[in-house]
Structures are given as structure tokens and as C-alpha cells.
Design brief:
Keywords: Lipoprotein, Membrane, Transmembrane, Transmembrane helix. The protein has 3 helices and 7 strands. It has 155 residues and is of the alpha+beta class. The chain has 2 domains: 81 residues, PH-domain like; 69 residues. Helix 1 runs antiparallel to helix 2.
Amino acid sequence: MVTYYRDPAVEVTSDRIALGDRAYPIAALHRVWHRRGARRWSGVVNRGALGVLMLGPLVAAAFGILLALLLETSLMTTAAIVAASVVVGLAVVPVADLLLDRVDRSYDRGTRDLELWALIGGAPVLLLHSTDARRFNQIYRALQRAVESSTVTSR
């Protein structure tokens, strides 16, 4: 028996798929497909907010430099405003790493509800519902490999 995927709730092997307290033999799956649900706009808005957070200090720094150049102040005052603006702009570097990590994780989670279906005994059965795109894709691909290997060995 080959294990294609395993986590605390799902196990896909060459013999069966187990989802919590339910298990189905791979040979009983006659057709496997997935459906994507409606877009969850909260995920899209979250990504947009993260982008604005990353650009905010840079825009503030550019505004400070522009302000320093437009104001008719002494050279020292202008230099101090430009230096402060550059420091604000550089402050975004460590924060940007944290925000980019959050953006990466938001893509892993996805913005849609995902469903994994199979035709078992002539009836469509919902095997899995998830909002975690990365995990869903791993399970779906593991199930595809298990079904493919079962059809190759049954020939």
C-alpha cells in the first residue's frame, strides 16, 4: 500500500481515501471532480489592505521628499526632512517581509470554497469541502494519483 497524502483528517492511499470517520475504496470511485465555489471577497480585500500597508510608508517618504523640495526652507531643514523621509521609507523593509509572508499565506488559503466530489455507486458524493486551497490541491492531486495507479494495476 502506497500513501499519497496524510494529515490528521484525511488519508489517501493506493487502497482507499479516508476522511474523518468515512472511508471509500479507491476502486469504488468511478469519477472524481472538483468544484470551485463563489469568490470570498474578504480574502481579496485582505490582500488589497496588505498591499496598501506596504505602500503607505513609501508614499509618505515620497511625499516628505516632495514637501522638502517644495518648501523654501534652509538647507539644513530640507536635509532633515529628506533624511526623515528616507528613514520612513527604509522602515518598510522589515515590515514588508512580514506583510509579504501574510500575502503568501493568503494565496495558500485561497479566496474560494473548494469541493471534492466522486461518483460512488452511481451517486455523487461530496468527499471534502475546504477553503484551504493548498491543502485541497494536495489532496486532489493525491487522489488523482491513487485513482490513476489503481486503473493501471487493474488492467
